[in-house]
Amino acid sequence: MGIVPTHGKNASPPRRSPSVSLPLGERTPKSWMCQDRGAYYYLEDWRGMDHRMAILVDGGFYLKRAANLRGEATPDERAKELVDYCRAHAKHEGSEIYRIFYYDCDPVEKQAYHPLHDRTFNLKRTTEHDWKIEFFKALSAKRKVAIRKGQPLEGSCRYVLKREVSEALVKGKKTRDELTDADFVLDIQQKGVDVRIGLDLALITLKGYADQIVLITGDSDFVPAAKFARRNGVDFILDPMWHPFRDELGIHIDGMYTPWPRPRK
Fold first, then answer.
1. Which residue has better confidence, 146 or 150?
2. Structural contact between residues 96 and 49, judged by C-beta atoms closer than 8 angstroms
3. Which end of the chain is less enclosed by CB atoms within 10 A, N or C?
């Protein structure tokens, strides 16, 4: 288990968990107490012990955050970067990687409407399509990586304004005539990805394939899965890659850690 009671006949001295850095943004591990059914618990330090770690990556989220935090990269560079990023998690916890699970969907090969040009584009002929194909090829060749693919929702493919651009338009800091292709992003909603993450998480937990799970995501839908894993003795670590998260979600995980430094504002 990733927690030990601090009082009662089974009490043990509190120890620090290397993955705890709450509130979000702290990079120095701290002790963290949580309450469960009236008893307070300290998180247990897993370092110095033999543990296997499964790393589950929300692919669409990772690619967006990696581009924001580290800039653009070739498919080979991004695939290597992802594996190195996951290895940094294992090194931080002193664990062996069981497997890296990457969840995403194939590039869309349909027409998408672009409001700036008032026309549709064949996505199969775009550089983004070719980049994604090459990225999957590069990632599939990596050691201990399993790719799980969902499907894009029908009718969900379109170009939309980036959030910061929309805010600039509303505040009058940018005009419509100043808009460029760089101000838009392709919005594709996926189906099946969340289900596959949940199923793999449950299977890893019940079969005992790993006793530590790292989930790289910005989605708060992970809470039920995190609760299930923790109740079955798994040390559950969340990595939001510095994406804003509600502080109260911390009570549903054993730790929160992002290998890359916090970006400057």
1. 146
2. no
3. C
List of residues 6+ apart from 155 with CB closer than 8 A: none
For residue 5, how many other CB atoms are within 10 A of its CB? 16
- pTM reported for the whole predicted model: 0.76
Give pLDDT, residue 86: 98
Quickly tell me which residue has 């990269």 as its tokens.
73
Tokens of 35: 């309450």
Q: Alpha-carbon distance 171 to 188, whole Å?
A: 27
Whether the CB-CB separation of 121 and 144 falls below 8 Å is answered with: no
Cβ contact 233:121 at 8 Å: no
| pLDDT tens string 39-66 | 333 344 545 558 999 999 999 999 999 9
Q: Which residues, in sequence order, are bridge partners of residue 120?
A: 113
The one-letter amino acid code at 75 reads P
- Per-residue pLDDT tens over the stretch 160-215: 998 889 999 999 999 999 999 989 888 877 777 889 999 999 999 999 999 999 99
Instruction: Return the HEC string of the chain.
Output: CCEEECCCCCCCCCCCCCCCCCCCCCCCCCCCEEEECCEEEEECCCCCCCCEEEEEEEHHHHHHHHHHHHCCCCHHHHHHHHHHHHHHHHHHHCCEEEEEEEEEECCCCCEEEECCCCEEEEHHHCHHHHHHHHHHHHHHCCCCEEEEEEEECCCCCEEEECHHHHHHHHCCCCCHHHCCHHHEEEECCEECHHHHHHHHHHHHHHHCCCCEEEEECCCHHHHHHHHHHHHCCCEEEEECCCCCCCHHHHHHCCEECCCCCCCCC
Q: Compute the distance between CA of residue 231 and CA of residue 51 in angstroms, rounded to an integer.
A: 18
